[in-house]
User: What shape does this take?
Amino acid sequence: MSDVDFAETMEKLADLEDNFLFSFPIDQNDQVKMGLIELRPGIGGEEASLFAAEMRDMYVKGINLIDKHSRVEVQGEQNLTKIRFEGVNLFKLIRFEAGVHRVQRKSLTDDYDRIHTSTVTVAVLPEIQKECYLIDPKDLRFESFRSSGPGGQNANVSNSAVRVTHIPSGITVVNQEERNNSVNKEKAIKILQQKLEDSQQRSVLDSVSTLRKSQVKMAQRSEKIRTYNEPQNRVTDHDDQNIQYPFRRFIEGELLEASLRTKRWKIIMELLDNPRR
Assistant: This one.
């Protein structure tokens, strides 16, 4: 086999690997296209804040290396950095960064060159997009009755007021602002639509909040998923058989993709071994 044939064969094998890696469904979050990384300094005071800033740069560089067509936006707040990202298959990898990250290194703020241990919490969440709630007409129950408010003779002698109930949720809206039943009905449906969308949004936000809490926990050192040890020049993934990487190359974002691919392969292999999991 010539060098050219060998290179083409290896490229085809790499494409097959990618197709399987990203097409195998892990759960419903694999459908997410836009994600949000939340970085928070944990234990360690100023040292934790300094390392959170380095991790921010690591993620921005790493995401751009994983997908050069990705979109990344960084927003900084007090004790919180948000990184919004969008790209093909990005969330399928970045999701595995969620958890407590521990760093061990000489303090940049300590004159005695002592080794300090601090933590940074990482939450990886689906980006919330408000969606229009599609109402099935079969789910609505309408009732007409006489208006009890002001509006002259027509308001009280005709069934101009409308009550609409969304049967699955039990949400009810009453409208009697106008003298015309059809107009009141149209307005009631619009109000109901907004109430259903607000309810749906609250449910999604509650789910995201629960997911965030499950990921970051208490930011304790013992809850770590990865340790960055600068003096020993190593980064260790604890949730994947303690695989190690060179510290500097990792913090520069060069090896982030390798770590995340390994994590995803591990989950896929576990699912294949235990299909009912």
Notes: The CA atoms of residues 3 and 9 lie 10 Å apart. DSSP finds seven helices and eleven strands in the chain. The radius of gyration is 27 Å. Helices lie at 3-23, 46-66, 90-94, 153-157, 181-216, 247-251, 256-273.
